[in-house]
Write a structure and sequence with these properties.
264 residues; alpha/beta; Rossmann fold; 2 domains; five-stranded parallel sheet; flagellum; Chemotaxis regulator - transmits chemoreceptor signals to flagellar motor components CheY
C-alpha cells in the first residue's frame, strides 16, 4: 500500500447539491481526510485548482456549467492539473459520458449514492495512483526494464507512464498505435508491453497477434488495457495471446502485482 495516507489527502469535492456535499464530506471526514474544499460548478473548481492544487478531485457528472467528463478533460489539458487524481461519483451510465472518463485515467467511478466503504476503497486507489509502491522483482531491477506503452490517447499514455515510472521503471518507450509499436518491436527488445485495445491502423488484438506469431519477441508479457465490454471481442483478445487484461479504470496496485507475477 502507498506510504501516503488518507489523513494527508487534500480533496476538492465538486458537487452542486448541498445535501450530497454534506453526505460525501461527512464520509471523508470520518475517514480522516483533513482538507476538504467544496466547489458547486466546474468553473469554480478550475479556479480553486489554480489557487491551490489538490491531491484528488471528486466530482459528480452533471454540473451547472459542464459535465464531470468535460471537467477532467480540461484538467488533462493543463500542465499544472494533468496529474491530479480524479474520481467520479454519479448515477450516470451513458457510454458517451463514461468512455472519455475512462480514457482520461480516472482512479475510480462510484455509483450515486455510494457507501462509505466504497469511498474508502477508492481513496486507497487514489493514494496508490499518487504514490505507488515500487516493483519487487527477483530476476531484475525495475530500472533495468525496458517497457513499451501503446495507446492512441496521449492522456492514457501519460497516466500509465507515470504509474510505471513511480514504480521504479526508468526506460519507457511510447507508441500511438500498433503500427508504431511494431516499428519499435523490430528495433529493440522489451521486457513488457502495455497496450490499449481500441486504436486506429492496428488495434491491440492485431498487435498481440503480431507479437505472438511474427515478431522475434514472442514470449514478452503483453498487458491489455481496455474499456471494451463486448464478450465476443474480449474472447478474441484473449485468444490473441495477451498475458492479462485490465478494465479501465484500473489501479496501480493491480498493475504492480500483475507485473510482479508475470516477471517472477
Amino acid at each position: 500500500m502507498s506510504q501516503l495516507s488518507i489523513q494527508q489527502l487534500e480533496v476538492l469535492l465538486v458537487e452542486p447539491s448541498s445535501t450530497q456535499h454534506r453526505i460525501i464530506e461527512g464520509y471523508l471526514t470520518e475517514l480522516g481526510a483533513p482538507g476538504i474544499r467544496w466547489a458547486q460548478s466546474g468553473e469554480a473548481a478550475l479556479m480553486m485548482m489554480q489557487e491551490a492544487i489538490p491531491d484528488l478531485v471528486i466530482s459528480t457528472m452533471h454540473l451547472p456549467d459542464m459535465t464531470g467528463t468535460e471537467l477532467v478533460l480540461q484538467m488533462r489539458e493543463e500542465e499544472r492539473l494533468i496529474d491530479i487524481a480524479f474520481m467520479l461519483i454519479s448515477s450516470e451510465t451513458g457510454i458517451r459520458y463514461l468512455e472519455p472518463l475512462r480514457q482520461a485515467g480516472v482512479v475510480a467511478m462510484l455509483p450515486k449514492p455510494c457507501s462509505q466503504d466504497q469511498l474508502r476503497g477508492s481513496l486507497y486507489a487514489a493514494l496508490d495512483f499518487l504514490e505507488p509502491e515500487p516493483l519487487e522483482l527477483s530476476h531484475m531491477a525495475p530500472e533495468e526494464m525496458n517497457v513499451l506503452v501503446v495507446d492512441d490517447s496521449f492522456t492514457s499514455r501519460r497516466i500509465i507512464h507515470q504509474m510505471l515510472e513511480k514504480m521504479g521503471i526508468e526506460k519507457i518507450c511510447e507508441a500511438e498505435n500498433g503500427v508504431e509499436a511494431v516499428e519499435h518491436i523490430e528495433k529493440e527488445f522489451f521486457d513488457l508491453i502495455v497496450t490499449d485495445y481500441n486504436m486506429p491502423e492496428m488495434d491491440g488484438r492485431q498487435l498481440s497477434e503480431f507479437i505472438r506469431q511474427e515478431s522475434s519477441q514472442q514470449s514478452v508479457p503483453v498487458l491489455m488495457v481496455t474499456s471494451e465490454t463486448d464478450k465476443t471481442r474480449l474472447a478474441g483478445v484473449e485468444k490473441s495471446g495477451v498475458s492479462a487484461i485490465f478494465d479501465k479504470p484500473f489501479n496501480a496496485d493491480t498493475l504492480r502485482t500483475t507485473i510482479q507475477r508475470l516477471l517472477a
